[in-house]
TrEMBL record:
Catalytic activity of the protein: Endonucleolytic cleavage at apurinic or apyrimidinic sites to products with a 5'-phosphate
Recorded GO CC terms: cytoplasm
Organism of provenance: Pseudoxanthomonas broegbernensis
Sequence similarity: Belongs to the endonuclease V family.
Localization per Swiss-Prot or TrEMBL: Cytoplasm
Name the record gives this protein: Endonuclease V
Length: 229
DNA sequence: GCGACAG
DNA sequence: ATCTTGTCGC
């Protein structure tokens, strides 16, 4: 996928942490929470990040899947020098460059991107999945394994049970029981996906595991401590 | 001021 | 995220 419309993910950023937070607030205003993806979805892209050389290299994996069969069509791994430490709330400034590198390796743009981490379930409503969506213009949503901000009730024990994740009086996502006896997933919209749809889509992509297929397959690629070929 | 804090 | 094998529970 040629990045013809590639926009700078950090426009005008001065490199400071304060500047990063200010930029997040600005970019968050561009997030669209109305469903704006093609129906029916044809392709999905799952993304995840891992590290090599004690963190010196950031490795982003992407897997393109057929949205109907959930079968993988192609996958790639991008490696870029790590430029930022992990700072809670600023994850996208550390991992987005690698994710965009992986996206650029796809032969075609996906109809929707599924990213490991939060969408709008973030202090300033711009978790990495939302940031990715605004930067690329692609519909996106986040699937996290734990909460960054907000509170929620423990969802019921059945597959599909869910409870709203609340923060400052508004719903920012869901705690979703994707599999019995497993900790709930934290699902939130990224860009061009609504709150309700985000949870429904993730349920649709489950195949017997805690993680939905797009992120499960990308995870497997991103965290292999071997075959750097 | 003290904790909490995606990956 | 990463360092790391077997082990307990369903």
């Amino acid at each position: 996928m040629a990045l013809d419309h590639a926009t700078d993910p950090f426009p005008g950023w001065d490199g400071s942490l304060a500047g990063a937070r200010t930029l997040q607030a600005q970019l968050a205003a561009q997030v669209n929470l109305d469903d704006g993806f093609v129906t029916p979805l044809r392709t999905l892209a799952g993304f995840d990040v891992g590290f090599e050389d004690q963190g010196a290299v950031t490795r982003a994996a992407v897997v393109l899947l057929d949205a109907r069969t959930l079968q993988p069509l192609e996958s790639h791994v991008a490696r870029v020098p790590t430029a930022m430490p992990y700072v809670p709330g600023l994850l996208s400034f550390r991992e987005l460059p690698a994710l965009l590198g992986a996206l650029a390796m796809l032969s075609h743009a996906p109809d929707l991107a599924v990213i490991d981490g939060q969408g709008i379930a973030h202090p300033r409503r711009l978790g990495i999945a939302a940031h990715f969506g605004v930067a690329t213009g692609l519909p996106s949503l986040g699937v996290g394994k734990s909460v960054l901000v907000g509170r929620c009730e423990e969802p019921g024990p059945e597959r599909g049970d869910r409870s709203p994740l609340l923060h400052r009086g508004e719903q920012i996502g869901w705690a979703l029981r994707s599999k019995p006896r497993c900790n709930p997933l934290i699902v939130s919209p990224g860009h061009r996906v609504s709150l309700d749809t985000a949870a429904e889509l993730v349920m649709r992509w489950l195949a017997g595991y805690r993680l939905p297929e797009p992120t499960r397959l990308a995870d497997r690629l991103a965290s292999r401590r071997d075959q750097p070929r």
